[in-house]
């Protein structure tokens, strides 16, 4: 949790909704996906200066901080955060979520919490409600689609990282792999009826603070996650969403 979501709006619609100034070609061209799963390409929004400020290995990746005007950018990232110190990409397969309660202590997430926060943009997400089958050890899993009540896009609180691929030359533009994770928290406002966890969803005010590069205190960043979340609605959907092979608008329709 959160392990599946839907993102089907055009990049320009998302750019307008989140006041994005720069959209990379990759983010603009990614196809609609009604069944996004870990390791898939995802669109993220971040506030960063256009050029690196130092020659530091981690900060020399594209889109890192500089002593120039900060711009809001939309990038395409790999879902599942891969820390700069990771030996290979496989680490990200199990880091698609980051528990808010342990961000400040985690070796993978504490630095991104300070300087590499992003929002993962989407239209809604899926969650499965588990019900024990009486007299058996089986559990029924009922999928639900959860989305903002007002129809606006979702802003999941996220963290990102740049990973230098050791198999590529230092001057290879494809050497740096951008990856991201979705922050989760205890479910609230009725969502606990479905699952005990939820992705941390931000209001426009929350997005502004979460992305602000001048916010470097972990406590201040974490306080954003405790603020009231946007109102959401949900409905049961078909079991087809359980397979990543299925990807169509029908997945979000009520059963």
UniProtKB/TrEMBL annotation:
Domain of life: Bacteria
Family stated for the protein in its record: Belongs to the SOS response-associated peptidase family.
Protein name as catalogued: Abasic site processing protein
Keywords on record: Covalent protein-DNA linkage, DNA damage, DNA-binding, Hydrolase, Lyase, Protease
Species of provenance: Occultella gossypii
Entry EC number(s): 3.4.-.-
InterPro entries, A to Z: SRAP (IPR003738), SRAP-like (IPR036590)
One Pfam family here: SRAP
Enzyme class: hydrolase
């Amino acid at each position: 949790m959160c392990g599946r979501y839907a993102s089907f709006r055009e990049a320009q619609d998302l750019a307008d909704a989140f006041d994005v100034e720069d959209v990379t070609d990759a983010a603009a061209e990614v196809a609609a996906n009604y069944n996004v799963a870990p390791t898939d390409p995802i669109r993220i929004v971040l506030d960063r200066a256009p050029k690196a400020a130092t020659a530091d290995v981690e900060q020399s990746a594209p889109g890192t901080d500089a002593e120039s005007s900060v711009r809001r950018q939309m990038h395409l990232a790999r879902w599942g955060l891969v820390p700069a110190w990771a030996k290979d990409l496989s680490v990200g397969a199990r880091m698609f979520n980051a528990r808010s309660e342990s961000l400040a202590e985690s070796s993978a997430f504490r630095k991104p919490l300070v300087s590499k926060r992003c929002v993962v943009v989407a239209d809604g997400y899926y969650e499965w409600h588990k019900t024990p089958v009486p007299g058996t050890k089986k559990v029924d899993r009922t999928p639900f689609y959860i989305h903002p009540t007002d129809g606006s896009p979702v802003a999941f609180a996220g963290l990102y990282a740049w990973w230098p691929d050791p198999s590529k030359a230092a001057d290879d533009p494809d050497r740096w792999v951008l990856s991201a994770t979705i922050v989760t928290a205890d479910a609230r406002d009725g969502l606990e009826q479905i699952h005990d966890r939820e992705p941390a969803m931000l209001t426009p005010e929350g997005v502004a603070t979460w992305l602000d590069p001048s916010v470097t205190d972990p406590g201040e960043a974490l306080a954003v996650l405790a603020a009231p979340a946007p109102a959401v609605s949900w409905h049961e959907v078909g079991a087809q969403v359980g397979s990543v092979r299925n990807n169509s608008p029908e997945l979000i329709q009520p059963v």
